[in-house]
Write a structure and sequence with these properties.
Length: 258
C-alpha cells in the first residue's frame, strides 16, 4: 500500500490506484496518515473534518466515514483502518505514506551533504520525486492538514537548498544554476537561493550574471519589504566582485539548510 499526500490525496492498494471522491473520506485518510500508527479520537477526527463545527452526533458521523474509507484501503494484506477505544488508527508502516517517506529521505540526505554529497543528492532527489503537486491539495480546510501542508512545503524548500548545496560541493555548477534560476524567481525572498545561484553562475564563468542576480534580489527586497540584502548575501556579492579564490569548487562558503 502507498498512501499519497504530496499532491492530491489518494491510495494505491495492490498496485491499483484508488481515487477518493468523497471530500470527508479524503480528509479522514489524510488526517490519520499524517501520523500512521498513532490513534486519533473521534473528537479529534470530527474537529478536523468539520473544522470545529458542532455536530449532533460526531461519533456516528466519523464512524460512517470510517466505514467508507475501509472499503477503499482495507485489502488482502489486512485491515488498515483499525478501531481503537474512542477512535481510529491507520495501521500501516510509515514508509507506506509518501509524506513520511519524504521526511525520512530528506533527513538521511541532509546528514550526508558534507560527508557524502553524491549520495546525499541521490537521496534528496528520490525524496523530491515523491511530489506530485502541492501537499494535501484536496484534504480539506482542517487545521491539522493545513498546518501539515505548510510544513511539508517548507521542508521541500529546505531539500532544494540541500540539493543545491550538494551539487555545488561536487562541482555540478551547471545543473545547480539550472535548478536555482526558477527557484530564485519563485521565491525571491528566500535569499539563500539567490546566494547559491550567484555562486553557481560565477563558477560557470558567468560573473556578470551572478552580479545581476544580486541586484535583482536587492531591488525586490527594497520594493517589497523595504529591506536590504542580508549580510551573507552582501558578502557573497563582494567575494564575486573581487573574484575571491575561496569561491573555487567545494563546500567553502556554501550556506546549507538542516
Amino acid at each position: 500500500m502507498l498512501i499519497r499526500l504530496l499532491g492530491t490525496v489518494s491510495v494505491n492498494v495492490g498496485g491499483a490506484l484508488r481515487d477518493i471522491r468523497a471530500s470527508k473520506v479524503r480528509a479522514m485518510l489524510a488526517t490519520l496518515a499524517l501520523d500512521p500508527g498513532r490513534p486519533l479520537s473521534y473528537d479529534d477526527v470530527a474537529t478536523e473534518l468539520w473544522s470545529g463545527r458542532s455536530l449532533s452526533n460526531a461519533r456516528n458521523a466519523v464512524q460512517a466515514h470510517a466505514a467508507r474509507l475501509r472499503k477503499l484501503v482495507d485489502g488482502p494484506g489486512g485491515i488498515a483502518i483499525r478501531a481503537v477505544p474512542n477512535g481510529y488508527v491507520l495501521d500501516v508502516a510509515p514508509e507506506e505514506v509518501d509524506g513520511s517517506r519524504f521526511l525520512t529521505l530528506a533527513a538521511r540526505g541532509a546528514a550526508l551533504v558534507r560527508s557524502e554529497p553524491h549520495r546525499a543528492i541521490e537521496l534528496l532527489e528520490e525524496a523530491m520525486r515523491l511530489w506530485r503537486g502541492p501537499a494535501l491539495l484536496d484534504a480539506g480546510d482542517g487545521l491539522r492538514c493545513r498546518s501539515a501542508a505548510m510544513l511539508f512545503e517548507e521542508r521541500k524548500l529546505d531539500v532544494w537548498e540541500l540539493v543545491s548545496t550538494a551539487r555545488l560541493a561536487v562541482g555540478d555548477n551547471v545543473t545547480a544554476a539550472a535548478d536555482l534560476g526558477p527557484l530564485v524567481a519563485q521565491y525571491p525572498l528566500r535569499e539563500v537561493f539567490c546566494e547559491q545561484l550567484m555562486l553557481a553562475l560565477y563558477r560557470c564563468g558567468r560573473q556578470s550574471d551572478a552580479l545581476a542576480t544580486f541586484h535583482r534580489t536587492r531591488r525586490h527586497l527594497d520594493e517589497e519589504l523595504g529591506l536590504q540584502p542580508s549580510r551573507p548575501l552582501r558578502q557573497r556579492y563582494a567575494e564575486i566582485l573581487a573574484q575571491d579564490p575561496a569561491l573555487a569548487d567545494g563546500l567553502v562558503g556554501v550556506t546549507s539548510a538542516g
